[in-house]
Amino acid sequence: MATIRPGTTTAMRPIATLLVLGASLSLTSAHGDHSHIPEGEAISAEPMGTTLWIHILIQSLAWGILFPLGMVFGLVRSRWHVPTQILATALAVVGYFLGHAHGGRQFGKNAHASFASWLMLLLIVQVVLGVYLRLHLERGFLGRIRKWQVKGHAILGGVIPVAAWVQMLLGGIASQGFCQADHLGQCLAHFIMGSAFIAYGIVLTILLLSGQAWLARTGRSQEFWDSLIIALWGCVNTFTEHRWGNPWAHNDLQHTSMGIIWWAAGLVGMWLSRDRSGRPRRNLIPAIVILLTGWAMSAHPQTLELSTHVHSVFGYTLMAAGLTRLIEISFVLRDKVAPKNSDDIDEEINSFQFLPPFLLYASGFLFMGATEEQMQLLSDAGVTHVSYILILYSIAFLLFLFVNMLLHLYSYYTASSSKGKGPSKRHDEEHSMPNGHARVPAMTERQAQDAQEFELEGLITDDEDEDGGKKHSQTNGRAQ
């Protein structure tokens, strides 16, 4: 049987509370009264109320900022991991119930409301696993499965930010009543592909700042993995962009042909990722695929002038991402693969290397913001393509900044722990008291070290003066 430490009963109370919360999820209706929604519409005509705006702000803070920050703290085993996750969980629970208690605009049945319950259930499982691991039940059956619980907790920690991204997109779609009826297909294509471009940019940023050692351990170049994903994605697009049995439309032909070139080029990129000796080798195939995709998207026919401009800028941005990636590999890195031993990766990063990932971020937001319903809404409101594109670029800059901040935090903690100093918990406990003041032994050791350095400096100075006098007299003797 498992041995439970003292205070386990008290620690189990949060689990019971979360189980009660989970049971209540299925009893909560989705986003208010549906009687005010006109027939055939997804939302009512009222504007969004204050409660709903508070719900949006709280959930954005919890799921968009605090949970990713807590995930990084967990990866580096920081003492801030648990407080951050507790705060994020509390805000997420409050925001969840605010989303079902608002006035103003009402919403029909939608994916955002349905997925919210599953997301909260995922959060409950994650919190239960976290509390269980904090109890340190290391004997009996619970002790034997502990390592699997640790892996499950880590996997869920990585899944939650992705699920939160999906939920936030669904929330934005539901708030405007988009992606209904005939608009569903193109809406899914825009948001899935746009998210894929952003995810690709995030992966490139991670590999640039913190993934070089992992790449070296895999024994393959980065283009191998890029080409593999491109080939798999191309296979999916080849057989899903057209409803088989129906007449071929112009867009179906264009999207299917893009899928074909992706898997064909992806296979070539995988083949060229090794030289004849089996060593990893860089190649330009993924960059060329991105460039061609951008060119195809820039020429995509549109019905609205605003949509034409937005799609054109999206295509040019994606072409720029492919071109800068090509320049980076050929002229900046000169086909150099990931270094096996790198003490300071920042010294090897060129400023130009940040450009391709950012352009992928911008491409993703531009494509997600170019659906038919969004373009019609903005065109009716008199919004110009210039102001809209600048706003989308601003959002891309903010996400790029946030990802870089998280990676800097991760690198700072890992570098400090590897050197035996820095903000690690163990170091803080050894050299500080609970009130934040340094312990007396640490101050005494520092003072003793300073005194020794002072004495050594005096001895060295005296020796240098004596040696200098002897050399001076000898020189004078030779001169005489």
From TrEMBL:
Record key words, sorted: Membrane, Signal, Transmembrane, Transmembrane helix
Residues making up the signal peptide according to the UniProt record: 1-30
Spans annotated as Disordered: 420-480
Residue ranges occupied by any DUF2427 domain in the UniProt entry: 36-136
Compositional bias of kind Acidic residues: 452-467
Bilayer-crossing regions: 52-74, 86-103, 115-133, 154-176, 188-211, 284-301, 313-333, 354-370, 390-413
Domain Protein YTP1-like C-terminal: from-to ranges: 164-410
Domain of life: Eukaryota
Pfam short name (any one): Ytp1
Keyword match Transmembrane helix: yes
Protein name: Cytochrome b561 domain-containing protein
